[in-house]
Design goal:
Elements (H helix, E strand, L loop, with lengths): L20 H23 L10 H4 L8 H22 L11 H11 L2 H14 L4 E7 L5 E7 L10 E7 L6 H4 L3 H8 L5 H12 L2
Antiparallel strand pairs: 1-2, 1-3
Helix pairs in contact: 1-3, 4-5
């Protein structure tokens, strides 16, 4: 405590033309910044939770006092989800997954192209605001899921490996209501090296 807004690991304009500079500034500074501020505010009344990491809080929401549980769920999820989102993107386009991650994607979903189709479908099928994810399930298999609002898969015992934000604030300035175009373009920003590292860490528990 308190949680802090992490700096972007690259410039605001680094993901052009796929994600525009103005969107990145508003998304990171204002939206993510507000989640961090609101999470810290909620935890002021729960000093016993103030030493916990976000990775400890989100899987144990039942242990959070009922009066602040929704605030921690929403804002803690927003903080975790966005921190991951910035880290799994990179400037200059994307590499393709390889090694253990590529093999696991093929085993679970058929191919990387099938993964992209499934994540895009999950993102398009999410009514309103939310996220589409590639997660490692408790049994050790990869799966594609979608969550509403800022809910995080950590809260349901799944380990997020990759996630794409489909809230309108993530894309509306550039793509307006064309969520399919945003999702297609987003794959050009994926940092597969970071996704693979998250996969290996999740496998080790």
């Amino acid at each position: 405590m308190p949680f802090e807004l992490p700096a972007l690991p690259y410039g605001y304009n680094a993901l052009e033309p796929h994600i525009d500079e103005q969107t990145m500034r508003i998304h990171h500074d204002r939206h993510h910044g507000t989640y961090v501020t609101s999470l810290n505010k909620a935890l002021e009344s729960a000093p016993n939770l103030q030493g916990k990491t976000i990775n400890e809080l989100l899987p144990s929401l039942d242990a959070v006092p009922e009066g602040i549980r929704m605030a921690v769920r929403n804002n803690g999820g927003g903080h975790y989800n966005h921190t991951m989102f910035w880290e799994i993107m990179k400037p200059g386009g994307a590499n393709t997954p390889s090694g253990d991650l590529a093999a696991a994607i093929t085993a679970a979903l058929g191919s990387v192209d099938k993964l992209k189709e499934a994540v895009n479908a999950a993102g398009l099928g999410r009514f309103g605001s939310g996220w589409a994810w590639l997660v490692l399930e408790k049994g050790g298999k990869l799966a594609v899921v979608s969550t509403p609002n800022q809910d995080c898969p950590l809260s349901t015992g799944q380990h997020p490996i990759l996630g794409v934000d489909v809230w309108e604030h993530a894309y509306y300035l550039k793509y307006q209501n064309r969520r399919p175009d945003y999702l297609t373009a987003w794959w050009n920003t994926v940092n597969w090296t970071e996704v693979a590292a998250r996969y290996q860490k999740a496998r080790k528990g």
